[in-house]
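Run log, item B.
One chain of 282 residues. Sequence copied directly from the ordering sheet:
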Amino acid sequence: MTLQITPEQITVPVASSIPAPLRPVRTLVTLGDSTCVGLGDPVPGGGWRGFSVLLRDALGAAELVNPSFTGARMADVRHRQLEPALAARPDVAVVFVGMNDTLRSDFDPGGLRADCASVVAALRATGAHVVLLRYHDHTRVFRLPAPLRRALQRRILALNGATGAVAAEDPAGVGVLDLDLLPGGYERDAWAVDRLHPSELGHRMLASALTELIAAAGFAVPHPVSLDCAGGREVTAVHRVAWLVLKGVPWLVRRGRDFGPVIVQSLVNEMVRRQAPVPDRT
């Protein structure tokens, strides 16, 4: 007997058009330096808010763990901030650090990469999605003498190379926010009076860009970040002058002492290159 199958009896599986449900962010961790602390986004009554708080609110996270502190370097994140971050078992972790390393005389790209890799590996082992930063050219924001500008630009490139290499090892679990491509990131309004930290608007721009990366990784963003400034403290001309006298000049003096040898080495290298004989290509 021959089994007859009519076309009506043939069932073709149909791929489900229902998208996978977005994962909620219950715990957010932010690790890093003064930008992660919130400097540049003051709130009435004192203190700082910053992108960490804005991001927490956008994601609807029940808990924000932010052990960051001013002046932190990549090694500080590894040795002083990572432990409380791991204990929180975050769903998402943002690592915002590295610029302070570029301003020190002991800058070490190899050490940066090793510390960053250790931090990312530990966070990923808990199941966290990690976001790293690719830094902008800060000499376009904070004007510097030419030798210092060139030295800092080279160091930022080296920093980005180190973190980029770490991210490339786990592209599905590590996102990278490129600050050089952040719309409006070089505009004056995006920066606080010190030109070192984002303003309220700058912090809002950071939080908004981070939510886009995190959403692309499959997480829910129930409350998108508004770029309308509200809730911060107004920065007046008096604040600007006070910062310049009390904070700006002392900071330049401290960094000049630490970064001075780098400037000298940069000048020497340029002189050597200029005096080197041009190879005969005939």
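Observations after the first pass:
- The helical segments are 34-37, 50-59, 74-87, 99-102, 109-125, 146-168, 200-216, 237-275.
- DSSP finds eight helices and five strands in the chain.
Flagged for discussion on Thursday.
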